[in-house]
Amino acid sequence: MSDLKTRFVELTRKPYAEQAKWYLNGFWLEGGEAEAEAIWDFVHKFVKLDDGKKDGFELDEFKAHRFLEGLGETLTVVKMREKLKQIDLDVNGRMALIEYLLFRYNKSVEATVNAPQGDNREALAEAEQKVAAVQEALDEVQKQLQEQKEALAAQMKAEADAKQRQKESDAAANSAKSAEAQAKKSAEAARSAAEAAKASEAEARKSESAANEAASILKEAESQAAAAEAEVKAAVDDLKSQETAYADKISALDTKSKDTSTGQVARSKAAAELAQLKQENPLPLRKAKLTQEAALRVLEKKRKEAEAAASKAEAAAQEAASQAEAAAKDAREAERTHQASEDAARQAESARHEAEAALQAANDAAADAEAKRLESEESTRRVEEAVRETEEAYAEAVRYFEEVKAKPGTPHGSIWWMQRELKEAQKYLPKKKQTL
Question: 84 with 228, same domain?
Answer without folding.
Answer: no
